[in-house]
Every structure is written in C-alpha cells, then in structure tokens.
Amino acid sequence: MNDPLPRLALLFLQMSLLAFGGANTILPELQRQVVEQNHMMDAHTFAALFALAQAAPGPNMMVVSLIGWHVAGVSGAVLTMVCMVGPSSVLTFLVAGAWYRFRDAPWRKAIQKGLLPVTAGLLISSAALLIKATTLDWSLGLLTAAVTVLLLTTKVHPMLVLGGAAALGAVGVVG
Fold first, then answer.
1. Are 99 and 119 in contact (CB under 8 A)?
2. Confidence band (pLDDT; 50, 70, 90) for 132?
3. N or C: which end of the chain has fewer CB within 10 A?
4. How many distinct structural domains can be found in the chain?
C-alpha cells in the first residue's frame, strides 16, 4: 500500500516553516519535492494548478490544497492545508508577543530588513520556475516576455491579461 497522505503531511509540515512571505515563496522547493523528488505530478500540471490558484479569488495558498487534492482527493486537500497553516500559525502565536514587545529594537528591524530581499529572491525564483515549466516552445517564451513587459510598464489589470490568454488558448492560438 502506497498511501500518499503521510508524504504529503511531512512535506507540508516542513514547508509551513519555510514560507516567509506566503506560499508563493516556497514554490521552487515545493515543485522540486512534488514533481522531481516524489513524482506526484508533472511540471506542467504543477504550473497549471498554480495558475488556477492564482486566478481564483482568495488567498495565494490555494495552490497547497490543489496539490493535495490532485494527489489524494479531498483528504489530501484538507491535510495539506492543515499541515501548511498549522505549524506556522502556532509559531506565529508563540512569537507574536515578543515580536511586538521588541518592535523598536535594532535587532528586530535588522531581521525585518534582512527578510525583505530573501522574500523577493524567493518570489523571483518562483517566477523563473513557472516560466521554465510553461514555456514549451519559442512562441510561448516570446509571449511570456511580451506579457512581462506589458505588466511591468503599464497599469493594465493582470486579470485582463489572464482573460486574454484564456481566450487565446480556447481558440487554439496558444497552448
């Protein structure tokens, strides 16, 4: 019997304590564990679940439950969410009082400043991973670059871009 639930539980208990800045910051490690190491799904499915989670309203952690659901159904979805939010919530509860008490301490400010570039780097790494998993040919790479430039240089709403991409995919222009 090869029950995936214990592997999911252990993975997301660990990821919970690494997710500074949200679930998106652990995406590269999560992809490495889920796709490459444990072979729970392929890279394209992982990227599709992430895209679905980002398109849906709600917290960016929805990808966690989608991974659990894909691997082990409803019980996997519930387990991954509990394991993802449990340890970090308990740790936050235990540390919050001291963190507030030392809000003006120089060491606290230094820690906060140090975590900013770490979180930014993890997010950039997540973006690179998703680009690699979804860019199947040069035309998709060109489209990714064009959309990146569009989003960085204009104030167009990302949901409009996502809707346009969905329409192009529906008619068979991309994908």
1. no
2. confident
3. N
4. 1
